[in-house]
Automatic annotation (TrEMBL):
Residues 1-27 form the signal peptide. Coiled coil: none annotated. The keyword Signal applies. InterPro entries: AztD-like, Host-pathogen_enzymatic-act, Quino_amine_DH_bsu. Keywords: Signal. The keyword Signal applies. This is Zinc metallochaperone AztD. It comes from Sinorhizobium psoraleae. It comes from the Bacteria. SUPFAM superfamilies: YVTN repeat-like/Quinoprotein amine dehydrogenase (SSF50969).
Amino acid sequence: MRLSLTRNRLLTAVAATLVFAAQGALAEDNETQAAWRIFVADHTQPVVRAIDFSSGEELGRYDLKGYAALTASASGQTVFATQSDRDVVHVIKTGIAFSDHGEHRDLGVSDVARLPVTFEGKRPVHVVPHDDHAILFYDRDGKAEIIDEAALLEGKAEVRTVDATKPHHGVAVTLGRYVLVSVPNTEIKTKPDELAPRVGLRVVDEKGEQLGDIAQCTDLHGEATSARLVAFGCKEGVLVARPGGIDGPNLEMLPYPADFPKAYTGTLLGGKAMQFFLGNYGEDKVVLIDPDNEQPFRLIELPTRRVDFRLDPATPRNAYILTEDGNLHVLDVIKGEIVRKGKVTEPYSKDGHWRDPRPRLAVADGQIAITDPRHSLVRVIDAETLKETRTIAIEGQPFSIVAVGGSGASH
């Protein structure tokens, strides 16, 4: 798969226009500023730390009930700390907010704070950020909650509940006024401590009523949004949802090519400035997916197993892949090739429990922040040279990490 040359030229022209417009607008302002913050959860301690990325100063420490996985909202104004083992989700206000004024955007910076609203349910796992809301899925409740972010920031909870029919390790994603919900196998009996397997995806409307038939997607796992498309990983291939007409979204299965090795995608990332998806394919390969291409899949082999991977929102052709040998690889998503690599940590084996302490990646201000739990550090790597520029000491075993921020006008 290759993104078309025409599309590349269009993207380049659009980017150049946006940069020129932003430079012209900002020149008229008295001051511009940039602010980046990282949020780091500990592997063993129930705590999340907010850190100023530039100075390394700790801005806040928030005690939780259990180990937390972190997810930033689409706007970057909130971070969800999901504690699956303790059946609770806390929300942290990042203190970073942007307001769009067409030709430029303003940046507002305020204090970090844990919001007074918490969400409780049986085994919350997947948090899906989308536009002005986030969707929490509770595996053992068999339900999802759509949460309004504006209300959250005012200390209130405005929630719409979506029924998922039966407890399962599932996910829900909004697409316009519709919700895409994973479907469990309702015909088999499960033991009290077991969750039903996933068999497909269904579309529900604003009333919670199903539209059309269930789309097959065995062992559905992993989702991402790119442009107006939503993709889901399945054993058969990648299921893509497109906005439709009065009958709701259109669901299309992209089967894996016959000459691919036996594996499947269970984690997906979605491009922001370009429409594409990046997914794992087993443990030692990744796959680029262009749903509009005649041959939508392009497979990239890695030298060893993948530990974590991220897309660069500011440089959309770059993806960063950390492998267990401690090397960070830069994948050019347009070429479909690994273009450079650099050693950034000591080896971290993928053997053992899936949640053993291993590095995680975040991208901030042209740099990659990598947690190194063995050494109680966040390592800061230059995205161009792949050289370490500095470290941020973090007490304990820093593990899950997200970054929020950017630049804007300050009036």
